[in-house]
Write a structure and sequence with these properties.
Length: 216
């Protein structure tokens, strides 16, 4: 397998990773020149080295704009420099919910529905009717329905924390979605900015080539 020697680090890399410095956008080339003044457009470097400097360049840019970078912003920078997809990472990050969480979701879903209201109203009417009208004074829970009050209190005591568990998990999911949306939006903004720079770079080179052709 053929290799080439990088003018940036002096290390050898596979030939298929070879990149000419004249194909690097101007802003990134200037950033590399800060640490390697002799690195010119006639030099070559590897994809790995270019990605490393892209990451440093974006980090410095965001540090100037945002101040100290958060873990989320560092993940976005790595994604941009390595050309990975954040949307696939979002899908992979979906956690499997436990049986207790599924049960809490089901209870909250049913407890906040018309089905629950109709079912419970039917249960209450049936309970009161059974003890007042059908069984007369021999009902198992005569007025003032002490057993019914106990059942209702127990249901309320159990249902409230279960619904809160579901709501807390939903809020956590919303925070994660907001974080992932921010990552995607930030990466899109950085890549659009980079794309503009690349287009400007291509236009400048195209104009220079036209001038050379005209001279010739």
């Amino acid at each position: 397998m053929s290799t080439f020697r990088s003018d940036l680090s002096g290390k050898e890399f596979p030939e298929n990773e070879k990149i000419s410095a004249k194909n690097i956008r101007q802003s990134l080339l200037h950033f590399i020149n800060k640490t390697h003044p002799n690195f010119s457009k006639s030099c070559f470097l590897s994809i790995e080295e270019m990605n490393e400097y892209r990451e440093k360049y974006i980090s410095e840019f965001l540090n100037k704009k945002l101040g100290n970078l958060t873990e989320v912003e560092k993940q976005v920078i790595q994604s941009v420099s390595k050309n990975t997809m954040i949307s696939t990472e979002v899908e992979e990050d979906e956690q499997e919910i436990t049986f207790g969480q599924k049960l809490a979701d089901k209870v909250a879903e049913f407890g906040g529905s018309w089905g629950f209201i109709i079912f419970f109203m039917t249960f209450l009417v049936a309970w009161i009717s059974l003890n007042v009208f059908w069984l007369s004074n021999h009902g198992f829970d005569p007025y003032p329905f002490i057993l019914l009050n106990l059942i209702l209190s127990c249901i309320a005591a159990i249902q409230a924390p279960v619904i809160m568990m579901s709501q807390n998990r939903q809020e956590e999911k919303d925070r994660e979605r907001a974080k992932k949306d921010y990552k995607i939006n930030l990466k899109s903004e950085l890549e659009i900015r980079e794309l503009h720079e690349k287009i400007d770079h291509l236009i400048i080179h195209y104009q220079q080539d036209l001038l050379e052709i005209q001279k010739t």
